[in-house]
Structure prediction request, 507 residues.
Amino acid sequence: MPGAKHLAPLFAALDQVERERARKLERVLGRGGEAAGRLACARLPAAGARERGRLLGVLGRVARASATPEFRGALLAALDDSDERVRRVASGALGKLTVAELEGRLIERWQTASALERRSLAEALGKSGSERALALLRAERNHDTELQRIVERACLVLERDLKRALASRIALDRPLGEAQSLVIHCRAGLSSVLAEEARALGVATIVGPDRVRLSHRGTFGQLLRLRTALDFGLEVPLPGTIQDSLSGRVLSALQHPDAERAVRLWTEGRARFRLSFVEGGHQRDKVWRIASAVAQGIQWFHNDPHESTWEVVIDAVRGSIELCPRRFDDLRFTYRVDDVRAASHPTLAAALARVAGVRADDVVWDPFVGSGLELIERGLLGPFRKLIGSDVAEGALAAAGANAARAHLDLDLILADARSHRLRGVSLIISNPPMGRRVARDGSLAPLLDAFLANAANALAPAGRLVWLSPLPAQTAGRARQLGLRVTRHEAVDLGGFSAELQRFER
Prediction:
């Protein structure tokens, strides 16, 4: 950020340095605010063509953060500059701004502009959101390869922006009719729990620690019954090999009958998509090539990264794409109106409840109740006799009470220490206890869990069970055995940066 005293010498250097240094200076001066903009305007009348182009580059940057009419006026005036390069800089800068009269001025310049200048004009017109600009660009027949590429991209953007107002949502109640392969994602380590839950909808197969494949012919709304699921994707094979054009492979995958059927059935209104890659990153050049290929080859699917009904996730290594629904109301966890630090994710709480199972006479205790998600998920899963939650924090009890009320469940909430609160006849203890790396940083975690387990063993009735996440799995499993509890299930779960073990003990 240049200070006021630095502006004059920086502007003096702008015309003297070579091109790459000039671009760096433009970026620096562009952060100089209105003072830099006024100095740039003052220098324009006496500047040569090269300096005018560089001054306009600075003005374009300043004008993005300032609505000063003088700056935008100077850029508009430069559209009639005698030097073509200066005009190209001005049109490029104006394309990043909202200027009422810009579209007309750009179209006017188009009539006499060279192919080189039309590149900048086309890029700016692509951001105008105008039907008139779209018609002009569609009619362009110049053989300049780079201009054709820019015009094609500008048309894609204009068509996308002009259609953005059309409604687009995921339909929840339309069945696929024919069985299709879906990939359902979960937190790593919970795929066995998710598979058990998903089998109510069809044939479910574990294909990784964080994913299950389901053969499904029903509605998308039915998938939202799966409370342990994080995300859903319709799986389509990606044909060809890594040596083939990726844009052609993705187009072929989207032309698969399963892809078209699913998108048409599960979309209300205009079906829009954004592209992403499992390896991450923006990869803009790949995205544009794929979007262009899809625009030319498919009429029922439209690229729009800002208002997307679907996300097309490309996995070249696995040789597949996933079409993931995005614009829908997920009502599974709307009871979650309050929260506390280090609370469970609701899909994790739902997994604990499923591992715990349902008994109609269950007396359930969560000794580290937090915001109450484990108790609520157990209560929603099936019948019970009583739900009891305790915590040493009054704020946690208040959050649990608010969430339970929203879920239409009654909890007995008690301000109490899990190590010493005496209960008898508990048939299920379910909890996500404090995790040392998030909460207990003073070395007290291991003694806390040991003392709690001793108290829990006394509280559990015959055939009672304890289901929780343990940050110290070997220690807690060993302690449970000493207390006469059997370890009947244990699996590592990713908690976002570190793992804990989902453990089930039975008396």
